[in-house]
Amino acid sequence: MPETNGIAVIVKSDIKILVVDDREDNLFSIETILDKDGYIIRKANSGRAALRNLLKEDDFTLILMDVQMPDLNGFDTATMIYERDKLKHIPIIFITANDYGDESVFKGYQMGGVDYIYKPINPELLRAKVAVFVELYKKNHELLAQEQKMAAANRQLEKEIKERINSEAKVTLLNRQLIENINRLKATNEELERFAYVASHDLQEPLRKIIIFSDQLASKYGPILKGEGNDFIERIMKASERMRLLIKNILSFSRSAANSDAFEETDLRHLLEGILSDLEISIQQKNAVVHIGVLPVLKIIPGQFRQLFQNLIINSLKFCKENCPPEIDIYMRRRSWGCNRRE
């Protein structure tokens, strides 16, 4: 069955007609007349044979029914056919050799008949009447198919609307969660600012004393301590200075992490050397070897990169194999991103 715009199109070879007559010559005659139109013809030689045929097949386009048949006439057969809901849509044309008068004709219409053809049959008239009902069948089929297509489209539209409503509900929920997260983040930032305030004021005071006393210790007792003693004092002073810088960075990060002024041109190698000096004891305990390759000068937030490198090195020392001195390589690798761009 061919299709046009997704709708099945009925052609003559799809048309099925049931011819009911108790005489074989009449059946043959009607079949011969309609054969040239390419219809599918099913024949039944009695009303009961027609009913048996309709039990097997219910997709007939038209029934041509002889009225005068023994045992079960055409009117009674039509009545029994239309008792089944699946068969009520099939039109019946009664064929008769008698002129029953208006009352009998009206009875035929009451039984469900749609037209009469009188014997002897006029071939052109028969073909013309059959063609009318075939065309009606085609139009009804197309309308039904179009209705089904529209119903499917409506179901799809309803599904899309429902999905869109669900999506909008999800977006609304996500927006609400985002606002809640923003509020929580704002509260966290406020707590961080308060912590930074404490760090910048309460922690810097004892740190200043450590720096002052270390400087006085170096000035007064440096010549006496000499060698290793002076080296320890110098390490204390350097560690104190880095501690002061760390406190400063915490304060800067809490207040202006997203501020471009917080970014500084920083030599990563120099930054890394300071970290290795702080971790010298841990490195010696693990018998670790740290290789520093070529590192660039970048515009970064130094405090964050210091924390990054420090965490990576500490984890490398912490999670290495037992009795296996770790070897750590820190270097820069350039990666191509296409169009000769390197980053």
Please tell me about this protein's structure.
The chain has three domains: 3-121, Response regulator (Rossmann fold, 3-Layer(aba) Sandwich), CATH 3.40.50.2300; 146-256, Helix Hairpins; 263-343, Heat Shock Protein 90. 60% of the residues lie in helices and 13% in strands. The chain has helices spanning 24-35, 47-56, 74-81, 102-110, 123-256, 268-278, 280-285, 302-318; strands spanning 3-4, 7-8, 16-20, 40-44, 62-66, 92-96, 113-118, 264-267, 289-292, 297-300, 327-330. The strands form four sheets. A five-stranded parallel sheet has the order 4-3-5-6-7, with helices on both faces. Strand 6 (92-96), helix 4 (102-110) and strand 7 (113-118) form a beta-alpha-beta unit. Helix 2 (47-56) packs parallel to helix 3 and helix 6 (268-278) crosses helix 8. The two termini are 63 Å apart.
Features:
343 residues; alpha/beta; Rossmann fold; Helix Hairpins; Heat Shock Protein 90; 5-stranded parallel sheet; two-stranded antiparallel sheet
